[in-house]
Amino acid sequence: MSPIENRLAQAQQLPNWQLSASAVSCLCAILQNHTARIPSDEVRGLLAAEAVSLKTLMQQLMLVAQQFATAPVSDFLVGAAALGETGDIHLGANYEFEALPLNCSVHAEQACLSNALLSGETQLRSIALSAAPCGHCRQFLHEQREATSMTCVLPGNETLLLPELLPQAFGPKQLNVDTFLFEAEDNSYTLSHPPADSDLAQMSKLGLPLLPLSHAPYSQSPAAAVVRTVDGVCHRGVYLENAAFNPSLPAFQSALAQMQMTNSRECGLSHALLLELEQPTISHAQTSREAWRTLSNGVLYQAGVRIE
Fold this sequence. Notes:
Blueprint: H1 3-12, H2 21-33, E1 37-38, H3 40-50, H4 54-66, E2 79-84, E3 89-93, H5 108-118, E4 124-129, H6 135-141, E5 151-153, E6 159-161, H7 162-165, E7 189-191, H8 198-207, E8 223-229, E9 234-238, H9 251-259, E10 269-277, H10 285-293, E11 300-307
Parallel strand pairs: 4-5, 10-11
Antiparallel strand pairs: 1-3, 2-3, 2-4, 5-6, 7-11, 8-9, 8-10
C-alpha cells in the first residue's frame, strides 16, 4: 500500500467520514497525479457522485489532509483544505522538526496556501480546518489581497469570515505594500554561476521559475528551494513573507510541506538546492542547513541568482 493509499485508508476509519469507497479510489488516483490538489473538474465530479455540498466535500478532504501531517513534537495532526478562485481544492498539513525550535514548524494553513500557490492558484476563497486557526495562521491568511472575503470552516461546522477571526488586522497596507500573496512579480532571474553538475543544473531549472512567485515585499529577498527525494522526485518550495514577519514561511519548509503530501514522503531526502539573491537582505541558508541536517545526510547546495 502506497503512502497515499495508506492515509486515505486512515481517513476512512474516522467516525465522521462520509465519502464512498468509489470516491476514495477516485481521490487516490487524483492525488497520485496532482500533488495536494483536487482539480476543479474532479471537484465537480465528486460533488455530483457523492451528492454532498461543497462545504461537506471540503471538510472530508480536510480529514484526508490531516492524515499526512508530520508532528513528532506535538503529536497534534492538523489538516486544511482550501477552495481556490480556480475551483480547485488544495490540501495542506502541519510539519514539525523533531530536533529544532518550534518556530521552524509549518502550520497546516501555511502548507495549504503554499501548495496552492505552487499549483498555480490565484486566490483562496474558503478554507476548512481540523482545528481553529491560531493567531499565527490568521495573520498568514490575511496576506492575500481578497482576505476580507475569505471564509473559514471551523470544527463544529461553524463558518466565519477571516475578519471575524482577525479583527482590526495588521497587514501589507499598514506597511504601504501593495503586493500580495499569489501575485507574481515581473522579474525574471538567472544563476550567477551555472552549476557544472547536470543534476544541480536540472534542479536549478525547476527552481528559477519559482522565484517570481516568492512573496518577499518586506525584505526584497525572494528565495526558492528544490528538494530531491531518494526516488528521484523533486519537490518545490518558495519563500513567503508576512507583514508581521514571524509567520513567514521559508522556501525549504515550503518544499517539505509539498513533499509530505506525496508518495515520496517515506523515501528519504537525497539532496536539495536553495536559490537566493547574491547579496540578499536576509538569508535562509544557515537555518535551512540546520533543518536539513535533522532529516538527511545528503547535501543542501546554495546558488546565488540575479535579476535579468
